[in-house]
Amino acid sequence: MTLAQSCNHFLDLKDIPAATLRHILEVAKEWKEARRGMPKGMVDAGAPLSGYTLAMIFEKSSTRTRISFETAAHQLGAKPLFLHSGSMQLGRGETIADTAKVMSRYVDIIMIRANTHEAVVELAEEGDVPVINALTDRSHPCQLMADIMTIEEHRGPIKGKKVAWLGDGNNVATSLIEAAVKFDFSLVLGCPEAFAPYDDVLSWAEEEGGDVRVVTNAEEAVWDADAVITDTWVSMGDDRTGSRVRALEPFQVNRALMAKAADDALFLHCLPAHRGEEVTNAVIDGPQSVVWDEAENRLHAQKAILAWCVGKL
C-alpha cells in the first residue's frame, strides 16, 4: 500500500523535497517574528487552522513535544486532543490500521510520538489524513527543523557550515543526517563503533551526495565545527547498563571538547539533558548554549509543519 497522495505526511526529512523544507522553515521564522510581544495564549491573526482538529497520540511520555504541539494548534486556531495510547483501544489490542481508519473520520491531522517507526508509517498508509512523526525509535524530524531554525537564527544560513554530532547514532542522528543532505551542510558524527548510525541512512546520504562522515574520536568530530549537537545517551526504553555509559563517556560535551570547535560554535541539545553525562553544566548553561531557543523553536517550526500538512502554506 502507498501513502495517500492527498496527504502531506511529515514522517522523515528524506521524503520531503529540500525546497519544501526550506519553505516551511522560512514561514516558521516569519510567524515567530509576527508573534513577538504577543501573549502566548493569543491566536494568530486569521487563525489559519480554525475549525481543524489535531489528534496527538503519545506512546512515550513527553514535555516539549506535547506542550509545543498543543500550543501550536491553539495559536493556529485548531483544537488539540491529547490521547495517551494506554487510554485508547490501541493500547488494548486494536490494530493500527483500524485506529487510523476511525480517526480519519474524526480529525484533520494526527501527530504521534511512537515506540516504533513502523507504527507511524502504517498509520499514514491506512488513514486518510496527514500524519506527523513527533518521534520514533528511528527518527525525529520535527526536532531537526527546530535545530536548523535555531542555528540559522544565531549564525545565518546553514548551507556550507560544519555540524558535529556526539554520542549515540540514534533517532535524532538519523534526522540530522537527512537534514545535512536536504540543507547542504557538512556533518561529522562522533560515535563509538557499537553505536554508529543506521547503515541504510548513511548509504542514502552517500547516494544523495551528502557531506556526511562518521568518526570514532570526539575531538576529530568537533574540530572547527560551527555547531555541536548531542542527546541523552540512554533513550526511553533503552538499556541503561554500565557498559553502554562507559562506551559513550569519551563523547561527553564539556568545555575542553567545545574548545576544539570554532570559537563561536553553538551548543544544541534536544532535551531532556542528563547533566554530568552527555553534557556538563558548564556547557549547557554556558554562553555558547542555545538549548532554550532550540526548545522554543519546536513550537514555531511545528506550526509551519501543521499548516503545510493541510495545504495552508
Summarize the structure.
The protein is α/β, with parallel strands linked by helices. It has 2 domains: 13-139 and 298-309, Rossmann fold (3-Layer(aba) Sandwich), CATH 3.40.50.1370; 142-294, Aspartate/ornithine carbamoyltransferase (Rossmann fold, 3-Layer(aba) Sandwich), CATH 3.40.50. It contains 12 helices and 9 strands.
Model description:
The chain is α/β, with parallel strands linked by helices and 313 residues long. It has two domains: 13-139 and 298-309, Rossmann fold; 142-294, Rossmann fold (3-Layer(aba) Sandwich). The chain contains twelve helices and nine strands. The strands form two sheets. Strands 7-6-5-8-9 form a five-stranded parallel sheet. Strand 5, helix 6 and strand 6 (186-190) form a beta-alpha-beta unit. Residues 1-5 have low confidence and may be disordered.
